[in-house]
């Protein structure tokens, strides 16, 4: 009997099909070079993929030393615990602890550049270990209007800027229709790292990232915030209502020295799936134009 051996081309095609299958299923991030059986490893020694973290530089005018957000142990404290088995503190930090650390760190930022650096050094959100890039912002930080989406997708993760893919192209068209573009608007997300496989960020991930986006809003100090979709709207207003209820609604948003307006509208990704809803988004964008023109 003649057995046919797979040709190198067949083997390569099989391998590509196998990888495609996994990417489609959401397993699109390489975490290590070797496979791990996490079940049998449960009590084993703890490999770590990162060197221990440095404490951030203290703010100008403050001497180095333990602060609310610092990881430098005070003198005389017990030796550090064994390193976490996974990534930075992401797996071991309690969500509340991580969120309060995030708050302390975000507060230290006096400029957007500082905030971006602090965020790039923050390791209590597991998403940063699967993302290729931190996706901080795009557009003009002096703009009167700030758009906020949910989290980067694959294109944004690759490029390192928000709203670069199909949703971003639609957002650009919607902005253009009311005379805006990325020189007259600032664009960011409530979560700055791509969740693997484009899944939604978990409530814990959103909670840990929230102090950073709140500080980002304070530093941009826009006259108007536009939340694209339910996750951004719910995170920043506290409402539990879905976006089809909240869209078109104006919420008050407190900045340190004033209150500004927050407009909820539909996310461009939703409009790509349901183009018939664009008429509602168009209404919201017309309201946005009227607000910017002081006519509403
Ligand atoms: N969707 C978002 O919410 N943000 C992006 O940056 C891209 C897609």
Explain how this protein is built.
The chain is of the alpha/beta class. The chain has helices at 8-24, 95-108, 112-120, 127-130, 154-159, 166-177, 203-220, 230-237, 243-246, 268-273, 278-292, and strands at residues 138-139, 145-149, 185-189, 224-228, 250-254, 259-265. A six-stranded mixed β-sheet has the order 1-3-2-4-6-5, with helices on both faces. It is globular and about 75 Å long. The model is unreliable at 41-86 (pLDDT under 50). It binds uracil. Uracil binds at residues 149-153, 156, 162-163, 167-168, 189, 269.
Please tag this protein with its features.
binds uracil, Uracil-DNA Glycosylase, subunit E, alpha/beta, six-stranded mixed β-sheet, globular, 296 residues
Secondary-structure map:
Blueprint (H helix, E strand, L loop, with lengths): L7 H17 L70 H14 L3 H9 L6 H4 L7 E2 L5 E5 L4 H6 L6 H12 L7 E5 L13 H18 L3 E5 L1 H8 L5 H4 L3 E5 L4 E7 L2 H6 L4 H15 L4
Parallel strand pairs: 2-3, 2-4, 4-6
Antiparallel strand pairs: 1-3, 5-6
Keywords: 4Fe-4S, DNA damage, DNA repair, Hydrolase, Iron, Iron-sulfur, Metal-binding, Nucleotidyltransferase, Transferase
GO molecular function: 4 iron, 4 sulfur cluster binding; metal ion binding; nucleotidyltransferase activity; uracil DNA N-glycosylase activity
Organism: Methylobacterium oryzae CBMB20
């Amino acid at each position: 009997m003649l057995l046919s051996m797979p040709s190198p081309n067949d083997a390569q095609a099989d391998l590509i099909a196998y990888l495609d299958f996994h990417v489609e299923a959401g397993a699109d991030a390489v975490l290590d070079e070797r496979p791990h059986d996490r079940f049998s490893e449960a009590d084993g020694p703890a490999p770590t993929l990162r060197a221990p973290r440095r404490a951030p530089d203290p703010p100008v005018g403050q001497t180095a030393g333990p602060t609310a957000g610092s990881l430098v142990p005070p003198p005389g404290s017990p030796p550090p615990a064994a390193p976490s088995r996974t990534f930075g503190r992401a797996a071991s930090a309690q969500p509340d602890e991580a969120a309060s650390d995030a708050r302390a760190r975000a507060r230290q930022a006096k400029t957007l550049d500082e905030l971006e650096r602090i965020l790039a050094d923050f390791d209590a959100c597991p998403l940063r270990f699967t993302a290729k890039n931190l996706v901080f912002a795009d557009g003009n930080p002096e703009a009167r209007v700030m758009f906020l989406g949910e989290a980067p997708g694959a294109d944004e993760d690759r490029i390192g800027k928000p709203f670069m893919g199909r949703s971003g192209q639609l957002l650009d068209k919607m902005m253009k229709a009311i005379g805006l573009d990325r020189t007259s608007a600032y664009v960011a997300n409530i979560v700055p790292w791509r969740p693997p496989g484009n899944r939604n960020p978990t409530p814990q991930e959103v909670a840990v990232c929230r102090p950073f986006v709140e500080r980002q809003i304070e530093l941009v100090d826009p006259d108007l915030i536009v939340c694209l979709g339910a996750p951004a709207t719910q995170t920043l207003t506290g409402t539990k209502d879905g976006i089809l209820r909240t869209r078109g609604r104006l919420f008050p948003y407190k900045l340190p020295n004033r209150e500004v307006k927050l407009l909820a509208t539909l996310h461009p990704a939703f409009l790509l799936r349901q183009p018939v809803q664009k008429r509602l988004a168009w209404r919201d964008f017309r309201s946005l134009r009227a607000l910017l023109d002081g006519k509403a």
